[in-house]
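Duplicate of #3305? Posting structure anyway:
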C-alpha cells in the first residue's frame, strides 16, 4: 500500500480557520503585504499614471496579477465543476492567456 494512502489529505482551510496565533490572520497579512487592503488617493493617482498603455505597459500587467479584474470575475462566476481546478491552477500561476480569436 502506498504511503500516501495511509494518511488523510491535509485540510488547507484549517491553516486559516483553525487557530489564530497572531494578531492578524494569514489572509490579512497577505493582503497587507500586497498592498491590497487600502490604497490612498495619492497611490491611486500614481498607479493610474504608471499603468497607462495597458497591455503595452509591464507595470499594468504587474498590478493586474494581484487583482480580480472584471474578466477574471466573469470567468470565475461561470466556471463549471469540471474546469474549476484547471482554472484555479492557471489563476494562481498567472500564465498569460491569449485567446485564438485575438491572434491575427
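Output from current build:
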Amino acid at each position: 500500500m502506498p504511503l500516501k494512502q495511509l494518511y488523510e489529505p491535509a485540510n488547507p482551510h484549517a491553516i486559516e480557520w483553525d487557530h489564530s496565533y497572531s494578531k492578524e490572520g494569514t489572509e490579512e497579512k497577505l493582503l497587507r503585504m500586497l498592498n491590497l487592503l487600502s490604497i490612498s488617493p495619492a497611490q491611486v493617482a500614481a498607479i493610474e499614471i504608471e499603468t497607462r498603455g495597458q497591455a503595452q505597459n509591464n507595470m499594468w500587467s504587474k498590478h493586474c496579477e494581484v487583482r480580480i479584474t472584471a474578466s477574471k470575475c466573469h470567468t470565475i462566476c461561470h466556471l463549471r465543476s469540471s474546469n474549476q481546478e484547471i482554472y484555479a491552477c492557471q489563476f494562481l500561476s498567472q500564465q498569460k492567456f491569449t485567446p485564438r480569436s485575438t491572434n491575427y
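Confirmed duplicate; merging threads. Residues 41-50 form the longest helix (10 residues). The chain has a mean pLDDT of 77.
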